[in-house]
Amino acid sequence: MKKTSFSLLIAAPLLLGLSGCVVSVGGDRDEGYHISSDYKDREYDNRQAIAGLALGSSFTHSLNALGVADFSETFMDNEQKVQVLYYRTHRTKEDGMTTKDECTYLYFVDGLLKETGNGGEFSRNLGH
Q: Distance (Å, rounded) from C-alpha 29 to C-alpha 27?
């Protein structure tokens, strides 16, 4: 009985002292990690996800694959719902801002992917 009480007396402070510790598994991934590599990773991930989309993919599938767009537009054209999503895929200026000319657009008509492209704002004579 004395041995058990003594063990608890020793173990309790050690357990309480360790309760605030954090164990890191897999090394220090953040070492050498910079914001510039963060946006380069994001741009690469966006390019990779866009390359994996097939024409005719649904708007929802594309949004699930890429997440929230950097820019978006929605409008009606000849009774069809048009949605254009812009995802940053390349950097033209190291200014910390994302502009449409640094994005690839995804052009959807009635919820289906019809076209992708680079080079800035989607510009097509749509009669609007």
A: 6
CA distances from 111 to 17, 62, 85, 118, 127 (A): 56, 10, 12, 20, 19
| pLDDT value of residue 96 | 76
Residues of the chain with pLDDT under 50: 15-16, 18-35, 125-128
Q: Cα dist. 33→4, 28, 29, 40 in Å?
A: 49, 10, 8, 11
Residue 6 tokens read as: 């003594």
Residue 58: strand pairing partners? 112
Number of Cβ within a 10 Å radius of residue 49: 16
What does each C-alpha distance from 32 to 11, 29, 37, 40 come to in angstroms? 39, 8, 9, 14
